[in-house]
């Protein structure tokens, strides 16, 4: 659900806040959830990167928050990857600002690197894959490219999302 206006309906938030309060949710949890809802209601062009990703921990079903992410583009002339941007996933495991919304993406080969070892070490777990690199071809710059990553300490999988 996306709106043209940058400000969501105030009454909508009052209703949601009332529901959370009736369920006994603490104020900090309600505020965090309302902020997540508000971000999803903002216009897409205000925050949507042409390439986004989402990290989910397959073994627990929770989002992989604060996972470092890097996106690079292959330079065809040198066969080297050039770093375009670095970021990290948010509390929902998403990286909506991997590239600036106004970034002019080009056709080409790209690589996204997820620092999985740092994430799992931060959780007190060993990890078999120190990082996951996903190389993909961006054929149509007019399309949005979403790269979900499902990880556990000893496995990972990915696919082209929407």
Question: What's the gist of this structure?
Answer:
With 162 residues, the chain is of the alpha+beta class. The protein is 24% helix and 32% strand. The protein is built from four helices and eight strands.
Distinctive features:
single chain, 162 residues, alpha+beta, Immunoglobulin-like, 2 domains, 4-stranded mixed beta sheet, 4-stranded antiparallel beta sheet, 4 helices, 8 strands, globular, disordered N terminus
Report on the structure:
It comes from Umbelopsis ramanniana AG. The protein has 162 residues and is α+β, with helices and mostly antiparallel strands. Helix content is 24%, strand content 32%. It has helices spanning 10-22, 27-41, 44-47, 116-122, and strands spanning 51-57, 62-63, 68-75, 80-88, 108-114, 132-138, 145-152, 155-158. Strands 2-1-7-8 form a four-stranded mixed beta sheet, with no helix packed on it. A four-stranded antiparallel beta sheet has the order 4-3-5-6, with helices on one face. A hairpin with a 4-residue loop joins strand 3 (68-75) and strand 4. The protein is globular, with a radius of gyration of 18 Å.
User: With helices defined by DSSP (H or I, 4 residues minimum), what is the helix count?
Assistant: 4
Biggest sheet architecture: 4 strands, mixed
Under CATH, the homologous superfamily of the largest domain reads Transthyretin/hydroxyisourate hydrolase domain
Give the fraction of residues assigned to helices. 10-25%
Low-confidence sequence ranges: 1-6, 41-47
CATH topology of the largest domain: Immunoglobulin-like
Number of strands: 8
What's the CATH architecture name of the largest domain?
Answer: Sandwich
* Count of the domains: 2
CATH class of the largest domain: Mainly Beta
Major β-sheet strand ordering:
2-1-7-8
Whole-Å distance between the termini? 15 Å
**Radius of gyration, taken over Cα atoms and rounded to an integer in Å:** 18 Å
Structural class: alpha+beta
| Overall spatial form | globular
Strand fraction band?
Answer: 25-35%
Average pLDDT across residues? 84
Topology as a string of helices (H) and strands (E): HHHEEEEEHEEE
